[in-house]
Write a structure and sequence with these properties.
320 residues, alpha/beta, Nucleotidyltransferase, domain 5, 2 domains, five-stranded mixed beta sheet, 12 strands, 19% strand, kinase activity, transferase, N-acetylglucosamine kinase, ATPase_NBD
């Protein structure tokens, strides 16, 4: 008998759900906003997860699934886990299993049970996977304490470097104009309390944003670096060194499996990914890994044939 299962990949940017049958065919997908309680708040994140799951079941034309694996960032709080379980209890027969979001990223690039993943999206981390389980992790400490080389880290460095020349603390850089354009802040040399109106307006706009929104500025560093900006190139040098250090921290001679590069920064910047993770498989869709995880927890062996069915059927669904 064929059963249906649910895989969920919820992060700081979006929440995505997939219905996958026990033979590896994806039949429904759903998408909603941030499912990370740290960045979105518990109520909004729980609502997003419920919405994504409901959409996926509707697309698959079913009312319930047998089980679910939820790869959700920020679920260390048991109250939040309980809220998620409650929110989808009528849609999942067995109690959902919570998994690490970095494992979903890993299995989005390979079905191999042993290997590594280097992740750089809104956050950044490196993980060693052994027998399909998280065996070691480096960084992933969040925007305040770590995530070196992440989208947030890059965006913060872009904004710092872009604003520094406005009060005489940094080298001239094209990042200044790019940041001001992104903010919609006009150049105004008038003064307020010794600062230019431009700097006052820019800092006011930035502090009005949730901190994680600084990740929105990350792409500017690649634009500037490609145009020959030395300040931007220096930021990328530091990011590459930080990510390499993070990856080296989990490497071990005993595990010689594949390396997966994942997350929005690495997926959208293949040249940068090749620099920090040479030879890596670039995973562009964490939803495939969520499908793998839910089948593994259901006791379904995910060999190359099943993995191919997952990725190919999911690609057809997401192209629609």
């Amino acid at each position: 008998m064929t059963h249906n299962y649910l895989g969920l990949d919820a992060g700081g940017t979006s929440t995505r759900a997939v219905v996958v049958s026990s033979d590896g065919r994806c039949t429904g997908v759903g998408k909603a906003g941030s499912g990370n309680p740290t960045s979105a708040g518990v109520d909004a994140a729980t609502t997003a997860i419920r919405s994504a799951v409901t959409q996926a079941l509707k697309t698959a034309e079913i009312d319930r699934v047998s089980g679910a694996a939820l790869a959700v960032a920020g679920t260390g709080n048991p109250d939040y886990r309980a809220a998620i379980v409650s929110a989808i209890s009528d849609l999942v027969e067995d109690e959902p299993v919570f998994e690490f979001d970095v494992l979903a990223a890993y299995f989005s690039g390979t079905a191999a049970p042993d290997g590594y993943v280097l992740l750089s999206g809104t956050g950044a981390a490196a993980v060693r996977v052994e027998d399909g389980r998280l065996a070691a992790i480096s960084d992933g400490l969040g925007w305040l304490l770590g995530d070196v080389g992440s989208g947030f880290w890059l965006g913060r460095e872009v904004v710092r470097a872009g604003l520094a020349p406005l009060d005489g603390r940094g080298a001239e850089t094209s990042l200044t104009g790019l940041v001001l354009d992104r903010l919609g802040t006009p150049h105004d040399a008038g003064l307020q309390g010794g600062r230019t109106n431009t700097l006052v307006a820019a800092t006011g706009a930035l502090y009005a944003m949730p901190p994680l929104r600084l990740a929105d500025f990350a792409a500017l560093v690649f634009t500037a670096a490609e145009a020959g900006d030395e300040v931007a190139a220096g930021i990328l040098d530091r990011a590459a060194a930080g990510l390499a250090e993070t990856l080296a921290a989990v490497r071990t001679p005993e595990v010689d499996g594949p390396l997966v590069a994942a997350g929005s920064v690495l997926a959208r910047q293949p040249g940068f990914a090749a620099r920090v993770a040479p030879g890596a498989v670039i995973a562009t869709d964490g939803l495939a890994g969520a499908a793998v995880l839910t089948l593994r927890h259901a006791g379904v062996p995910v060999d190359d044939a099943v993995y191919h069915r997952i990725t190919s059927s999911l690609a057809q669904l997401t192209r629609v």
